[in-house]
Amino acid sequence: MLFNSYPFIFVFLPITLLVFFGLVRFRLTRVATASLFIASLAFYAYWDIHYLPLMLISIGFNYFIGRSIEETPLGSKKATRLLWTGIGLNLVLLCYYKYANFFLSSFDAIAGTDWTLPNIILPLGISFYTFTQTAYLVDAYRGKTTKQDWLSYGLFVTFFPHLIAGPILHHQDMIPQFQRMRNFVFSHKNVARGLVLFALGIAKKVLIADSVSPWVAPVFNNSGSVTFIEAWVGAISYTMQLYFDFSGYCDMAIGLGWMINIDLPINFDSPYKSKSIVEFWRRWHITLSNFLRDYLYIPLGGNRKGQVRRYVNLMTTMLLGGLWHGAGWTYIIWGGLHGLYLCLNHGWTKLGVSLPKLLAWVMTFFAVIVGWVLFRAATLSDAMNILQAMVGMKGIVLPGEAQGKLAILTNFGIQLKSWGSLAYIPEVNGNKGASIFVLVGLTLCTALLPNTQEIVEKFKPTWWWAVGVGVLTSVCLLSLNRVSEFLYFQF
């Protein structure tokens, strides 16, 4: 069930809210909590009920291991064995469903064998609920958890706004909210704020990300024949699509949480405003960055064992972060590239030399775009073809007439071709040039304008807000005939 679908908006969400607050009205708070848990399971089962038992088994296993660790003396050998048993089985489950075919095909390519496995379908959300529970086990081992009842724990893992594509939750942030009595009181303010943020999130997805989406595939599917300008259009289109798609999902998830008086963590903070890669990772997919820092980078030694070890830890963390996103070499190389970016960033910082802000932003944004090309490309060969075209290694072709005002550019080896001959530049109302202005406009919006969180902070229940949000929501609802999944569902 998609957030941007009629069944969710007009059936699932109203029934879930009515049942939850209806039970609260009769002071049945425990039953109300159970209703959210059941609703979350129904939300997950709507996708494919065959994978519901797998998730329930994972929850039951991790709850049992977590409780066992909590009842064991801190740092004891038994606690350590329990921790590694839990982490090991979580990773086995994740690796089988997400990486088995990738590892096997890579081995076949190296060894010249032909081993095969049955087609394995990746269960939705398995990366997110596996990471969430692994972090819980580590915190239990560190003595940072308290004994939880099974219902609170189950709801913490399955809470439907975050279940499929994050954000990655932390027990200390979530479980107390499910047990706090004032969170069971219906709040007109929270519902209104939640509806506004949900509307802004669905607008990002439906009106922007889905509109730009058709501009991406033609370039990446024809990487060997794209020209300079076409490669840039495809790369920036995907850069915008990914941002508005995933940040839109996270906005909708946070808005849904607010409607039930639950605060989910912010996952985006205008990442395309960043002036360094370090800053980018503090703004992009914040919950994943925090997870990788707290449960991988710091346990590896962080920056406590010298600069060389620090760079090794950064590379290791980002390579595994890339692998988490998908079973493919392009994801691993993307992670390694960002690891290299971070090493260079930290090395430059030690020199104490600062760049002009505009230059720092341009360099950071260009580095991010290069990374997204690797992230989106089906193969490394496709990625290299597009990157080569972007830097002019295949010649520079721009739209224009050889006899027109831009004819002087031909003296510098630049080719001019008519708009019609540039097959992979999309049209907007029959005008290919308009699509370039749209991409420039979107880039400026992400770099200069307030983000949705900042907009909602200024929310006041006035007629102007009601009319504006109402019109925006109506336009989105009328556009749901072209419903599409969120990009991060595949991870």
From TrEMBL:
It is a multi-pass membrane protein. The chain crosses the membrane at residues 6-24, 53-70, 82-100, 120-138, 150-170, 190-207, 311-334, 354-375, 433-450, 462-480. Keywords: Acyltransferase, Cell membrane, Membrane, Transferase, Transmembrane, Transmembrane helix. GO terms for biological process: alginic acid biosynthetic process. It is found in: Cell membrane. Its main location: membrane. GO terms for molecular function: acyltransferase activity. One of its GO terms (cellular component) is plasma membrane. Belongs to the membrane-bound acyltransferase family. This is MBOAT family protein. It comes from Limnofasciculus baicalensis BBK-W-15.
